[in-house]
Amino acid sequence: MASVEPQNERNHVRFSTLPQSETEVNHHEQQPLSISRNTRRIPTISDNNYSEEICSISPYTCDKIQNLLGVTMLMLLIFLPLYRRSGTPKQDPIPPIFNLNSIYISNFTIGTKGLAATWDAKFTITNINVSAIHFRSIDFTIFYKQNPEDALSVASSDPFNLFQGEFKKLHLKFMTMETADWEANQQQPFVESNLVEEIGKDRAKNNGTLSFGIQMKVQASYYGDYFAETLISDVVMTPYCDDLVVHFFPRENSGRLVTPNRNFLVPIHWKPVPFS
């Protein structure tokens, strides 16, 4: 029998060829349906295939680890209390008293070679109410009139400590060198010719009287009790005192401070601790 291929509106559907006779139909019906199974045997993994590794540490390595732990604990015991005690207190620091006792100027000459002078200054620093202060450095600058940029001479002090109620007297000498001497030793500030000329005119106009100023830069550490806890904090101070009138003796190149025992104004602030 021929196959029939009816058409659908969308697709063509093909029907399979019908059997030619009933015998052929019965033959197909009587054939048993056989299903083949392709099974594979999965090999089992024996526990003996895993090898047990035993990690052992040599006595030398153990000693090294113990030594490292010991050093670490020792560092913690030393630095942890210091870390807890170091910081920036919330209350403002109390500055010490800086006093200028006297100034004596000698060899004060003004000319075409520049300005030359020797400054002899005495100071007193008093710790009024801090448990202890360590002054790491104090840098002094003498300047003309009220302008710190017109520096005439510089000097520094060695480190020292002051406990509460103690005071320290400092005796410093400053040098202002002429141009030729300054070229050989440039540790002192260079005094410009226009400033030298101005000082000479002021001295002649004011009957031998000139005005100077002194500024300090102080790096120190405070050891004190703040909020019932001992703290170690760094401070920065910039004491200054201007309008220091010096009168020069007639026909002499020397002079003295007219008003001795002058107190400095002391701007001060805490220096933040990096790890606080």
TrEMBL record:
Renumbered residue ranges of the record's region Disordered: 1-39
Top-level taxon of origin: Eukaryota
Name by which UniProt lists this protein: Late embryogenesis abundant protein LEA-2 subgroup domain-containing protein
